[in-house]
Known about the structure:
Helix content: over 70%
Radius of gyration: 21 Å
Structural class: mainly alpha
Order of helices and strands: HHHHHHHHHH
Strand content: under 5%
Amino acid sequence: MDNSTLLRLGPSTWVLLAVFLLLAAVLWRTALDRSPAQMLVAGVRALVQLAAVALVIAWLSNAGAWAFAFVALMFLVAVWTSGRRVAADGRWWMAAIPLAVGVIPPAALMFAVGVLPFNALAIIAILGQQIGGAMSTVTLSGRRIRDELVLRHGEVEAAVALGFEWHAARALVAKPVAGEAVLPSLDQTRTAGLVTLPGAFVGMIIGGATPLDAGLIQLLVLVSLLLVTSSAAAATLWLGCRGAWTRPARSH
């Protein structure tokens, strides 16, 4: 048995990447009736972006202050991505609110107690994971809430007729589905070490950290993501129940 813990990279890696991407695009089109261009563009973008990010992170490795500028860029891209998914024709920029609510408090606490060092690589790695988790949550919860409010609009109107405020009536319908976006983070935390070995944990082990230290750091990341995603889902629900994603109708 090979004792190496690293994946073997070479020409075959590029062939395998192409095969994976093409198979994903074929299934995306044939089984799910979506445009294969979306899948292909996503793969190519990931390649270009990861290459660029690798160069930027290497340049920022000794410049902690500049890491926050890079994190700000990540945050803006997340706002654009989630906002356009939830409200492409509305106030997509409102996604900044649940993203900030989800990410800023846990990050501030980690800095305050000294767990997160003022190191560019650590800042980008941890905050990047938190922004990514919040982005997925805002997208999933926002779309789920939006669709549920449309599907059950009659129930909302009936509640208003009974004396409920509009935001309270919408909450009766939207609240039960808003938390579904947190389930992936919850399941990942519950099954860590049994179903999956999170990437940060494996990377630290490969890098020479002790299993105990690697496990503790990964646990901190997973639990912080529970707070991030729960907060982001709650803020997304609050916005959805108040119609904040929709542009106000213009008076004629």
